[in-house]
Amino acid sequence: MVRTKRKRMMNAGALLLTFTLALTACGENNQGNQSSGNPGEEGPLQLTMMLPTYSPEQMPKDSAVLKQLEANTNTKLTVSWVPSTTYTDKLSATVASGELPKTFVALEPKASYIVNGVRSGMFWEIGPYLQDYPNLSKMSEIVLNNVSIDGKVYGLYRQRDLARFGLMMRQDWLTNLGLQPPKTIDELYTVLKAFTTDDPDQNGKPDTIGLAIGMQGNNIAGFKDILVYMGGPNEWELKDGKLVPAHMTGAYMETLRFYKRLYDEQMINQDFAIVQDGRSVMQKGQAGLWIDNMLDAKNIEENTKKVVPDAKIGLINRISGPLGERTRAGAGYLGMYMIPKTSVKTEGELKQILTYFDQVSEKDNQNLMKYGIEGKQYTLDSGNYLPTEDPKVKAEITDGNQFMILQDQVVNYGTELEKQTTQLFQDNATIAVPNPAAPFISNTEIEKGKELSKIIADATVKFIMGSIDEAGWQQAVEQWQQSGGSKIVEEINAEYAKLAAQ
Amino acid sequence: MLIARLMRNRWLYLMVLPGLLYFLIFKYWPMYGIFIAFKDYQPYLGFWDSPFVGFKHFDRLFSDPNFIVLFRNTFILALYNILFFFPLPILVALMLNELRHELSKRIVQTLVYIPHFMSWVVVVGIAYMFLTTEGGFINVLLEKLGGEKVTFLVSNEWFRTIITTEVMWKETGWGTIIFLAALSGVDPQLYEAARMDGANRLRQLWHITLPAIRSTIIILLILRLGHFLDTGFEQIFLMLNAMNREVGEVFDTYVYAVGISQGQYSFSTAVGLFKSIVGLILVVLANRLAKKFGEEGIY
Question: What pLDDT is recorded for position A20?
Fold first, then answer.
């Protein structure tokens, strides 16, 4: 009895001891990292990061691709993946707690919690360091200006093609009906009508619709693209030297009417207001068109094929409207890597991390994170790119592109569809309409922007579904103005005037 | 004097100490956090160094045109909850109590608990499947009967009904537990005596059962009032969309949108604090009222 008791005590003591040791070890480790200034002096750089994932399954921790990247950059990476749908909220909560990883991606660099954090000195300003790094120094001035906050650069933007949006249409349905791909808004309407009424899947039942839509946050997927085809602006319009928000333009009304017509004639899914991901309608084989980032095409085709084996997705990027062929430009980046001062205390460590990002932007690493390892994720058969079919090996490259900074030296491999996507991205860039207000910050927008945009987004849905008319829409716009919208317009224009004066 | 009393009951006080510490450490100490409602909290500056701004955030809340809407929506949903949901567990408990067959009573009891253990995501998912216009059960039925489709999920009119019905379906069974416990404490002799005097079952219910659980009902009602403006976040957030936001946006979803999505930690704390204060006032008032009518109250 006494013996067992003593043994238990000893066990407890041993446990306590290991615990304390572990704790002190952690402490030392941290200090070591903070004080170290020279890379390569004491083992690989420990880098924790938080990244969004766009796949249901994450990159495995022991991924060979990740290991390869670590070896190439002499780092030890610890990645915490957060699903993209909740990423922004999770990041906000993490910022609030003040316990951030050493680097993370801010998907919305102008979100209020980021801007407020920057203004209180939470993040390293990295603009001045960029010139010291061979790859990072190649970053585009224009995009850097777009991500800047109060004129300074606080993060490394992740380069993406400028204009990636377009139409993904069921090519097999077009063929079934003997139709040509649409080139104008009117032709688009005709095709969508035929998709709805002429039984494009040839099963004798009226079970198809033209356009699949869903809600992306509070916005209707594809609406902003149709708006630009209709001659509308990309978020803000420059008119007589003044910036006007998109929803106060005539083209917005035209687009609303166009969607209302599609809704009334049952050419879009009638329950779109509660559909979180419109692609699901497309992938059930019920709809003929989806408008979004054309990178989706490959996934949509693969998933639709599970239901309809003959499904084929065709890409269309040029739709001509009142102002000719134009398309919506993105920002040229997708989020930016930021480095908080709360977890990276010294300039030395900052430089080490920047070195890592510089190495990630080397040609070999760019292609590694895009395609994986040759011989594993893909093979080259006399120049022909063959991706692996093994799902386990495939999984090792999941969301690999989330690591990428610059993409200027990526080789163009891929399937027919992927190659076409890349080609259309380049074509899009020539007709892209940028958002003229992208670099500007309005304090009112930071404070209330999301609440205000809900007024407009909700009214848009209501108009399309017929619960308000044009007078009701005007009321919503007025409500937007009174609740702070006119202040946003004022502040954005003041910023614009400042820039124009220079 | 005090010390003498403390010494006399030292063991009792020692035994109460862990409980006291629990409340001090885990309930009272964290309350210092509500001070950020009076500051412009910036994570990097930290709790103490963030600037003090007094009632700025409360000013913004009360002068916001949204405030009236939020208050109305929250209030009506809370009222529906008390009017329609609160009596339901009492009713079910009384009915279960009248069941003679022990086995069927147990089975029914267990079955009505089950919905409580489902998460809101599942409950809302089921509601969607029943109510959607695209092949939802109820709309298919309506059409078969020659009626027209009803847009349950995307309308202002149906929102509150659906929310309250979902709560009833999920929580009624669970709510019966406390009442059943109170009912099992009623002295069977009372019933026997009443039967001797010729009281039928309805009379027994009215004169014995209900008075026996009256104080339980009142205490639970007072406690419920303390959470009056807590409409619950998950359920409403999942049911919200562009077509019903006018009646559906409540304080809890607003705090999420402003506090988390927009990172305005101080403002959302102020909203939360306001909600708690309303709850506190209601509890105090209800308690006073209960005491006035000779009931026990919660303190």
Answer: 42
Residues A62 and A6 in one domain: no
Total CB pairs under 8 A between chain A and B: 88
Is A404 contained in some domain? Answer: yes
Are residue A184 and residue A313 in the same domain, yes or no?
yes
pLDDT of the residue at A462: 95
Residues A100 and A238 in one domain: no
Amino acid at B66: N
For residues A198 and A219, is the Cβ–Cβ distance under 8 A? no
Pair (A49, A144) in one structural domain: yes
Q: By C-alpha distance, which of B278, A191, A287, B130 is closest to B286?
A: B278
Residues A266 and A205 in one domain: yes
A68 shares a domain with A181 = no
Residues of A with CB under 8 A from a CB of B: 88-89, 92-93, 95-98, 111-114, 116-117, 120-122, 215, 218, 269-271, 273-274, 341-342, 447, 449-451, 454, 457-458, 460-462, 465, 467, 482-483
Task: Give the per-residue pLDDT at A42.
Answer: 62
- How far is the alpha carbon of B124 from chain A, nearest alpha carbon, in Å? 12
- The minimal CB distance from B44 to the residues A98, A451, A482 is found for A98
My answer on whether A318 and A424 are in the same domain is: yes
Do A383 and A394 fall within a single domain?
Answer: yes
What is the spatial distance between Cα B117 and Cα B114, in angstroms, rounded to a whole number? 6
Does a structural domain hold residue A183?
A: yes
> Is A318:A6 a contact under the CB 8 Å cutoff?
no
Chosen from B130, B154, B156, B269 to mutate, greatest number of chain A CBs within 10 A: B154
Q: Return the closest-CA partner of residue A174 out of A206, A210, A212, A205.
A: A210
- The answer to whether the CB atoms of A112 and B262 lie below 8 A apart is yes
Closest by Cβ to A450, choosing from B66, B262, B265 = B262
Q: Model confidence over B58-103: pLDDT tens digits? A: 998 998 888 999 999 999 999 999 999 999 999 999 999 888 888 9
Interface test with A, best of B130, B153, B261, B269 (most A CBs within 10 A): B261
Residues of B in contact with A445 (CB under 8 A): none
Number of domains in chain A: 4
Interface test with A, best of B56, B241, B271 (most A CBs within 10 A): B241
Average pLDDT, chain B: 90
**Gap between the Cα atoms of B285 and B287, Å rounded:** 5
- Cβ neighbors of A424 (< 8 A, separation 6 or more) are A166, A294, A315, A317
Residue B269 forms contact with A (CB below 8 Å):
no
Residue A199, CA distances (Å) to A171, A176, A195 in order = 14, 9, 7
With an 8 Å Cβ cutoff, are A451 and B46 in contact? Answer: no
- Check if the beta carbon of residue A230 is closer than 8 Å to that of residue A254: yes
Q: Chain A closest CA to B282's CA: distance in Å? A: 30
- pLDDT at res. A41: 52
pLDDT tens digits for range A249-281: 999 999 999 999 999 999 999 999 998 888 999
A311, A170 contact by CB (below 8 A): yes
- A415 located within any domain: no
The correct answer on CATH 1.10.3720.10 for the domain covering B65-292 is yes
| CB B242 within 8 Å of CB A458 | yes
Cβ-defined contact of A116 to B257 (cutoff 8 Å) = no
In chain B, residues with a C-beta closer than 8 Å to the C-beta of A278 are none
The CA dihedral of A107, A396, A339, A143, to the nearest 10 degrees, is: -50
Q: Is the pLDDT of residue B127 over 80?
A: yes
A477 lies in which domain range?
442-502
Note whether A117 contacts B257, CB cutoff 8 Å: no
Q: Does A367 reside within a domain? A: yes
Q: Domain locations in chain B?
A: 65-292
